[in-house]
């Protein structure tokens, strides 16, 4: 039982110990990390027999208030297995890949922390623990994303973190509601209460799934994916797309299967979102020139396939067993070939430091081993018969046909065609990638750099390639435990499934054909520009409307500006009014008052007095204001301006005059009269 | 006899203050040691008050039923006095180091210890009159701390702080007068002094509660009266950390809890239905605080606005008028105190070591001051409410409380503001750790980039302890929660 | 012994009168001081024993020279009169003791004897006003007090003094003229001069003479209002107080303007009685002037440049409080009026004497010049701060007690809006006292060039000030007993 | 009007009081003000004494022997007014002393001139 706790704690401690060793000696730390992940993998493997017959649980009391409740069933075990394997291989790979990079110590520290958090996500049964590890994972993986610390990675990191936190908070909202309606935090018990709650359950489901959808980069929330994958160093982007993507999908499965038990409307929604993801990812992947970006968009489109699988599980209801195991298998396969492809691009980037196809075309022509592994990865991805991709795709295809038979709804017939075209798209952009790098002939890359491709980088790719082929050839080895798990949790018994049947091969050939056609007609013709030095791809999609920069940002910025203006107003309204009042009083108090005009003549300098003789007669006319104004205009001479004095001085003088003796007596008289009036009037 | 011991925590700091003032008894170099001694002794006294479970109470001066200085210990007192004395000791250690390069330290320590006595007075007060007396004294003895630097700007902000506090105090007095004329008694009784709802003039009670809420709200940085807090940041860091993150603002919140649950009682406030007038203020405080924090480039100002927003959370928790909301409020009072004081200490040590006060200046500093910035990041994570830390626990209870009051709008406000909190706290640690353009350390030009700029252990020690508390409270919150159960038992 | 204690009031007036005329005969300055202080101590002790006697046996009537009531002069000695009498003697003793050290700096050598004579005459006449039960006798004492007060203003013959004295004398004699006319009208109705007989006569045949009563009431109000510095008629006060030597301005502000108010209260309630009073609107007039005084007094005080003028205007504001209390018309209001007279007398004399010692030591007059005085004369500014805090209304101190009970009285009398006036005026008090305190103690540029304790006065000269402030705090702390003591003797 | 007619004494006193007040108010010269004050005081004494007057009775001065007690006017007000006069005289004396002092200091006793001089 407590092996679960060991599995969880080991990478956590490893991160700190690794960091400590790292400060001392780099080599020892790399060795330590590899050994650690190897032990972890072994521990996970030893778990398999126990998990095979029934799920194991373990409860650590009052940690984090609600206690740490760990549970591993076959679904979770599959996820654990691929993450353990992936981490082991990428650690080996990154020891070689990161040599040129700086602050490696910090990288490995966050690398291990993310590993612990991911395991936590896959193991936790209590939704608060799930949420804790999920948030922890986004924070620690953030550090991996902006490892290069240049402007581009900061920008990617900012949107990654913003969306992760926003997703987390919306999920928290959903958890609040779920806790309020069900009173419990355990996913299983929730699953008993939530389904019969009326339409509030859809709100709860959607809110909780929102956070997972962001991590799984479902259609409207996918904008962070291409930026984050390209910005991150290759091993971490491999893990990001291989494993962290799966946590999102795993969450969606949990919500759909365990909490909502196959709720039809949510399933259909996921199914359609899957379709959108496939096409959006596929088309955009075709357009790109940066190979990492192509693979990033390809994972988005593969997520689309998996989403369709999850949707089918919901749609098929009781017979969804096959669809569930197909989806899980698809997730496993996708992890393997996606990490393989990323490792390949990693090696290219490590050597050339360049990712755009035009610059690295023909690099791999002579690199036999790299070419072979990369080819296996591409074929796996394109679901070429004999490779693992084919197995999961045909199973998915079977599930769609079954759904069609079940509901007799033409919608599924149409989506089946889309399914095949989607497969074609995958083939198209993979061809573009493979042909450009490995098939083109490029003189300046002949024979060079062979020695740079080290064994330590190639071994993980070899293992992955081997696994891809093994699953392709012996699918039942993985499939039977999955099917037994599906039957275990209440699906109907699944009759023996024939994978390598004739029509399944025909279907995959059809999608391959479509892919080649798209490649020939569209990519070669439209995207390839011939110029004197040979061809270069251009990327039309840069100008397209992208949801993030054209929709999210402007709206948020506008809201931010409006509210901050409103609040700054509230913030210093008191100072504002005080200042206005003070200025008002000050301005009133020093307005100029022209005091009596006649004194002004006395002070006129002698020279000008002759001139004024004539005016003397009008002196008494000056008493009224109008005359004064007229006389001012008339006197263009620089007459001494009327003796002006500030109102303030007037008040002060007035005040002192007022308190003189005779005025005070006058005031006394007024007060006596006022009192008499007051008493008699009011009396 | 028990009662005399009860009074000791109040007496000891005052005695200490008197001794510090004259130079003959306490020479200059012994001041810091003496202050540390006083604080530790006081902490022990508060601890022993913690464990005695019988209801200790004492009338120090009872002239008539209105004018009596009455101290009583109940669960709420224990929570607040413990929080205050723990954080006071940590701030003291921090201040010993920080104040080395400031002048007039003796005056600082005098008022520093006196403020502790006043805060404990607020915690121990048994009726509204004593609370109000100490509340006024709090303004008076924190004023010299705010204007410690003596510059023109400090005097101006001190003046503003004074005007706001006295305006608030007069509002409180207004409310108290009306309350006293209705009820004739002001002692804190669990579940409020109004035993039956009818028979009282509804709108008088409503007016008195609003007046008192806004009055105490001034100290708790409620929206219309909050702008003294960012200005008070001109004070030295230990002051702004302890006072404006913990002592002063929390005493405002503490008194609000007192009047809401121990004078009016939740049932009366529900009957009088006064919260609908106050909720807009609180909601605006929450959102405005965090939104404006995004604007501030000055580190301490940013933390000040963050305090305003977090206090809005606590007020929201109080106004929910249900057990979960109250637990959430008190828990957040504790958690926010611990988190905010760590953030302020970290910012303080940055400005102490490198005289940098603005965010754009601290890029790449994370490598030089790793421990400080790690603690800063953990505290920031906790303030946002990421689960393993204690900030999440209080947000959880506030959320559940909001649901019990079946009001989804509160949760939306909480989460929106949490998002903004992330918005203004994470960039700080990101610029510190991950932005790497050459840090222009013109001050330490000759210091090679590799050597660390960590502050001395005296400053670092409190920061690390507080971070450990943050994580510890986050992972094992049950101990605190059932300690607060006692308070809720009184209030409901 | 039992009835000889009853001789005390008359004895104290007689003793003061006699020693007033012996003092100028003495040549040496020290003899004058010793005799004066001796006499004062003796009279104060007498009054103290008298108050204790009254506390146990209650009030009594005392026929002067055994002539029965309608013809002989009768002294009515109740709790209120004895308390006020003790207050006057005590404050006068303190002021004289203080002036023992600083008088020769302000007045010429040969004038000191005259000062003490005038002071004794003044005190005797004030006691007379308070004790007398006969309105014409009160009028005569009123005149004597006016002349004596003018005397102590003019004793320092500078330009400003003489002008102020002339203004005060003209206005006071106007007031006395009105009072005499009022007495004439009252005599025409009742045919008696002793208050109790007038009251009976008025009650029997009040019907026909309604407007005569009204006129006489107005005449008394305005007449005594001038002498008691009611707001619109307060113009003479600032000039008189600011120019007079500080001991005499302390006496002027603390005692001289209080006696006429006691006389006014006695006329209202002993001559006219509550029923007739309730029928008229005079009390609302007094309330209106009280409110004006509270608000505008503080506003004018805020705009003053000189320290003593500012304190003078603050006296006008405090008199506004007293008239406000009388104007409320209920029992608590009246009690609070008397209590505020006691509180204000003690506080204001403390303020004036400390301000006097500032002016005397530094030679400056305006407030700006007193920046940083806290460093030079910390103890004196400390005492000034303590009494200023009482003015502002810090709990436990008397200022707060009277503000609080005034609020209760105004709620009792149903005028809730007056609370706002009370709050605003106490805020305004804070506005003009705090700058002096803050600039005194803190502020970088304020303290530059100030040597610590450089202008300190020897401790024994500060003793009277310290005793006054201690008494002030005691008046605040034991306000419950005082209020209850006055309540027993109040006239309603 | 009938009331005014039959207590003409009070009316006269009040009228005299008004005259005195006007003198006090309008004249700038200090001496004239003092005269005005005296006139006001005398008007009050007149009022007071008139209250004691009973038509057809004599003043309470013993010329030959004592008449029957009912033959005299009420003596109390007149007695009181003796004190009043003493008070008025002492106030006037004090005022005159102050006026001399004022003259020494300001060189003039015209209040408006003093007002300008004092403009310091």
Summary of the model, kept short:
The complex is a heterotetramer of chains A (683), B (492), C (492) and D (120). Helix content of chain A is 75%, strand content 4%.
What does the model show?
The complex is a heterotetramer of chains A (683), B (492), C (492) and D (120). Helix content of chain A is 75%, strand content 4%. Chain A has 683 residues and is mainly α. Chain A has a domain at 285-538. In chain A, the strands form three sheets. Chain A has a two-stranded antiparallel sheet. A two-stranded antiparallel sheet of chain A has the order 3-4. In chain A, strand 1 (56-60) and strand 2 (68-72) form a beta hairpin. Chain A starts with a helix and ends with a helix. Helices cover 72% and strands 2% of the residues of chain B. Chain B has helices at 2-21, 31-51, 75-98, 105-124, 128-146, 152-183, 202-219, 228-231, 237-264, 266-272, 275-295, 299-319, 323-354, 370-384, 390-404, 408-433, 457-475, 478-491; strands spanning 57-62, 68-72. In chain B, strand 1 (57-62) and strand 2 form a beta hairpin. In chain B, helix 2 (31-51) runs antiparallel to helix 3 and helix 11 (275-295) runs antiparallel to helix 12. The two termini of chain B are 31 Å apart. Chain C is an all-alpha fold and 492 residues long. Chain C has a domain at 281-492. Helices cover 77% and strands 2% of the residues of chain C. Chain C has helices at residues 8-22, 29-57, 79-106, 111-131, 135-154, 159-190, 195-204, 210-227, 236-243, 246-256, 259-279, 282-302, 307-328, 331-362, 373-376, 378-392, 398-412, 418-441, 444-447, 459-477, 479-489; strands spanning 60-63, 74-77. Chain C has a two-stranded antiparallel sheet with strand order 1-2. The longest helix of chain C is centred in the middle third of the chain and has 32 residues, at 159-190. Chain D is an all-alpha fold. Chain D has a single domain (2-117), classed as Helix Hairpins (Orthogonal Bundle), CATH 1.10.287. Helix content of chain D is 72%, strand content 0%. The longest helix of chain D is centred in the C-terminal third of the chain and has 32 residues, at 75-106. The radius of gyration of chain D is 20 Å and the shape is elongated. Chain A binds chain B through residues 62-65, 128, 131-132, 135-136, 139, 143, 146, 149, 154, 157, 161-162, 165-166, 168-170, 172-173, 176-177, 179-180, 560, 563-564, 567-568, 570-575, and chain B through 223-227, 284, 287-288, 291-292, 294-295, 381, 384-388, 392-393, 396, 399-400, 402-403, 411-412, 415, 418-419, 422-423, 426, 430, 434-436, 474-478, 481.
